[in-house]
Amino acid sequence: EILSLSASPRADFNGLHFKAELLCRKEIIDRTENKCTTCVLCFVVVVVAYRIVQEQCCVTVLEDKMCTTGINMAKDQGACDSLFTNTCETKTTKMCCDCCLLGKAAQENGIPCDHNLSVGYQCSLVSRACCVDGASNNQTAPTSQTECGSSLLSDINECLLGASNCRGGERCINTEGSFRCQREVSCGTGYELTDNNNCKDIDECETGIHNCGPEFECQNTQGSFRCLPKVKCGAGFIQDALGNCIDINECVSQTGPCHRGQVCINTVGSYTCQRNSVNCGRGYHLNEEGTRCIDIDECKGPEQVCAGHGCINLLGSYRCECEPGYNFNSISRVCEDVNECRHYPGRLCAHKCENTLGSYKCSCTTGFKLAVDGRNCDDLNECESKPCSQECANVYGSYQCYCRRGYQLSDIDGMTCEDIDECALPTGGHICSYRCHNTPGSFHCSCPTSGYTLAVNGRSCQDIDECLTGRHTCTENQSCFNVQGGFRCLSFECPSNYRRVGETTARLERSDTIRCMKSCQPTDIACVLDTTHSISHTFISLPTFREFTRPEEIVFLRTTVPAYGTYHLGSYDVKFDILEGNVENAFDIIKRIENGLYVGVVRQVKPLIGPVTTILKLSMRNLNTQGDSGQNIINVHVFVSEFWF
Question: What is the protein's major site of localization (predicted)?
Answer without folding.
Answer: secreted
